[in-house]
Predict the structure.
Amino acid sequence: MQSRLGRGGEAPARAAVLDECVTPISRPHRDDVLIAVGGLLSGLVLWAVGLHTQGGRSLPGAWVLLPLVGTAALELLRRTAPQPALALGACLLVLDQFTRGSLATVVMFTDLVYAAVVYGTPAAARRIPVTTGIVTVGMTIGFYAWFQQPEALLIGVVTGLITFAPATTGALVRHHRDAADSARLRAEQTALLAEMDRSQAVVAERARMARELHDMVANHLSAIAIHSTAALSLDDPATTRQALSVIRENSVDGLAEMRRLIGLLRDTGGRDEPTAAPTLSGLDALVAQARTNGADSGLGFTLDDRRAGTGPLPAPVELAAYRIVQESLTNALKHATPGTVEVALSRVDGLLAVCVTSPHGDRPGPRAPGSGAGIIGMRERTELLDGTFTAGPVTAPDGSRMWRVEAQLPAEERNLRT
């Protein structure tokens, strides 16, 4: 069985080896075919009418067709193998000098020189113009020294026209093509960078909107969830009425906050409609609202603001500090055990310190679910201002467990990240 399998797999294996070893031959470009056919037909017409570039050579008659046909065939390789085509074309040009000569062969050779510079390797594109220039100068000096006649300089001129001129022309064309490719690449890179900047700006704006939406609405919705749960679980008309009052108050406030956010997002059609951003001067009202929302849960709220006489704060810092306190109070309403939630602010050494501590542990009664987005939003707000943020459980001096949120924000404009 093994021998059968071996014989059966022999052909595919051989085919695989042949596929790896045989390099596919590139087909000539259509323009190269037209150039080759045109050059060959032109040479045949010149030979038929008896028009040659020289006479009295050792290979008369049809020998002129050998370099003509060979050079025309090399034109098919001017893009796919430009350097070998140039080397063989130079040999055929030398052979052409021993015949009566054909102008078509000379013209096609100049095209091979041009193509070798344009389509060849970068090293060849640098080397060929220098080499042809040296050959032109050498031919001029050599024939002038040999013939000792001014007419010998014409040989150098013809040599330059056949070799150096097409080489320099090809170098100029290649330089312009490379410059165009570089410009196109730079334009594509610029467009890519612009698209990346746009995408990053969209992501950053969506993150900012998410933070604003969460910070503005989560507080009110958390209070609504807690009090609606209490109203449904307790069969007490007074408690239900009080819970419905808190629910209505938070619904109205939440609706006002949503309208403010919509006002920020709506296109005003060129009208600058200022929208007041919350500042730290509104902390008293914020804490008072939290005190009302958390009364049924056994939570008390205190505010210790020690910033008196320290000067104004940058607007981004005031907004970030307000949102951090607001989110911390929301988290306390959802998760804190009965006790006192303390909010403390101070300004020392160019930094605004915001600290919110709340009782931490197993909480009885209704509670609202959390997603963790609040902690992420507070951390992002702090990092955007190049501040520091920490949040987690700590042990108070009396041994009780507390949850502490602490942020250090730069309190001066020059310290803000630009």
